[in-house]
Design brief:
The protein is of the alpha/beta class and 420 residues long. It has ten helices and 21 strands. It has three domains: 191 residues, FAD/NAD(P)-binding domain (3-Layer(bba) Sandwich), CATH 3.50.50; 161 residues, 3-Layer(bba) Sandwich (FAD/NAD(P)-binding domain), CATH 3.50.50.60; 45 residues, no CATH class. The strands form six sheets. Strands 1, 2, 5, 6, 7, 8 and 19 form a seven-stranded mixed sheet that branches. Strands 12-11-10-17 form a four-stranded parallel sheet, covered by helices on one side. A four-stranded antiparallel sheet has the order 13-14-16-15, with no helix packed on it. The structure holds flavin-adenine dinucleotide (FAD).
Length: 420
């Protein structure tokens, strides 16, 4: 087996496949290997709909072999160690591989063990997560027949920061449709201070919360899950303001504890597990203090190694970790990698932190948050062609885009190297 390549891409997920496809579209002679251990490639954005019974899980998966761009060598293996000074990396079974240029796109990993009791709760089905098994979410939601339906997320960075609340809105809609509203409380508890960082979107989402009669709890960080008692212990992320207090009108059965903590009992619990960069990135010199891959925020080139680039969930970019962000990162990375390949300096520093979050707010409505590093609302002008004047408002056409349009574009255009 060949052990040295002009370009090695680590990870055959959204970022890795899109990068390889666009590189080859520009120059089909490039020698590219993708290291990817998984047999299956997933379209994860649809998992939110799967969790609400509105999308078939099977349609979110395709064999990895089908999405590998023609001309790429697929090395079915796992990277275990990086040696950037020697332009080498170690793998689990192939041994040591040498590269001229390296693109890192291994995504992130779930770390349920960072919350006490969460691994057990997930294993026993006491807690569910669209991040791990969206079909289980739907199974549990169908069984729900009243009480507290609790939705929460961790204090770490997570992919698609909006996903923990999207499933809460869908569940609230489902609960209404089942006529369970009067005997249910839908609670969204988050360590964050507001429901969403972008002002225009925040306004709409607060109206959605009010419309459903949901209980919104900011400054709530989940720290322990008791599977037997079916309750979550939260600590305030702003103890000086003692935000974790029982509201006078609360019907949730909360219990106040010392040191600014509170427990909320639940009949249904959805949680986004804590998340982190994979160990081989965390343990390398390429990571920043928090373990994420340290790339330039605008060029996506590594800060200390000119022949290394990175993108997607693993990258230390101060914007939301989404496939939509990757869509805008890939053309910048590709142009810069091709410059370096021709012994030129990188010139494209145009990535401004674009990311987007399709906030499904009901079984037939959606709000589309598009924003940059500064949290400015930056809606795509192309939305006008879909007759969507203001994507910060709930819209049925946006929901149809999420359910049908985006999956089509993903499989048929983006993974094939088109810049859409
Ligand atoms: C529930 C949920 C909802 C979401 N909703 C949206 C949404 O609405 N819109 C949106 O744009 N995004 C959404 N996302 C986020 C989006 O799916 C991710 O941001 C995107 O897939 C990240 O791409 P990536 O290439 O960085 O990582 P991934 O696509 O996760 O791919 C990483 C790949 O690297 C491989 N890998 C890992 N470790 C190694 C190793 N050591 N060696 C070699 N290969 C390795 C993995 O097997 C994997 O195939 C959602 C995600 C989830 C979970």
């Amino acid at each position: 087996m060949k052990l040295n390549y002009q370009i090695i891409i680590v990870g055959g997920g959204t970022g890795g496949i899109m990068t390889a496809a666009q590189l080859l579209k520009t120059n089909s002679k490039l020698e590219i290997a993708i290291i990817e251990p998984s047999e299956t490639h997933y379209y994860q954005p649809a998992w939110t709909l799967v969790g609400a019974g509105a999308f078939d899980y099977k349609k979110t998966a395709k064999p990895m072999a089908e999405v590998m761009p023609k001309g790429v060598t697929w090395i079915k293996d796992k990277v275990t160690k990086l040696q950037p000074e020697a332009n080498r990396l170690e793998t689990a079974s192939t041994g040591i591989l040498q590269y001229d240029y390296l693109v890192l796109a291994p995504g992130l990993v779930m770390k349920p063990d960072l919350i006490e009791g969460l691994p057990e709760a997930l294993e026993r089905g006491v807690a569910v997560s669209n991040y791990i098994d969206p079909e289980k979410t739907w199974e549990k939601l169908r069984d729900f027949n009243g009480g507290n339906a609790l939705f929460t997320q961790p204090t770490t960075s997570i992919k698609c920061g909006g996903a923990p609340q999207k499933i809460a809105y869908l569940a609230a809609d489902y609960i209404q449709k089942q006529g369970l509203e009067a005997k249910s409380n839908v609670v969204f508890a988050t360590p964050g201070s507001v429901i969403f960082g972008v002002k225009e979107i925040r306004t709409t989402l607060m109206q959605v919360i009010e419309k459903y009669g949901m209980h919104f709890r900011p400054f709530y960080a989940p720290v322990k899950i008791d599977s037997d008692r079916q309750e979550v212990l939260f600590k305030s992320t702003h103890p000086e303001e003692n935000q974790c207090v029982i509201n006078e009108d609360s019907r949730l059965g909360e219990e106040q504890h010392g040191d600014f903590s509170i427990t909320i009992p639940f009949k249904f619990l959805h949680i986004a597990p804590p998340q982190a960069a994979p160990d081989f990135i965390r343990d390398s010199v390429l990571a920043n203090g928090n373990g994420w891959l340290e790339v330039d925020h605008h060029t996506l080139q590594h800060k200390n190694h000119a022949n290394i680039f990175g993108l997607g969930d693993v990258a230390a970019l101060p914007t939301a970790k989404t496939g939509a962000a990757i869509r805008k990162q890939v053309p910048v990375l590709v142009e810069n990698l091709l410059s370096v390949l021709q012994d030129r300096a990188v010139t494209n520093n145009s990535y401004q932190g674009y990311s987007s979050c399709p906030l499904v707010t009901a079984y037939d409505k959606m709000v589309l948050a598009e924003f940059d590093y500064e949290g400015n609302f930056t809606p795509d002008p192309k939305l006008k062609r879909l007759l969507i004047k203001d994507s910060s408002k709930e819209h049925r056409r946006l929901y149809l885009l999420k359910k049908y349009g985006l999956p089509y574009l993903y499989w048929n255009k983006m993974l094939k190297g088109a810049t859409v």
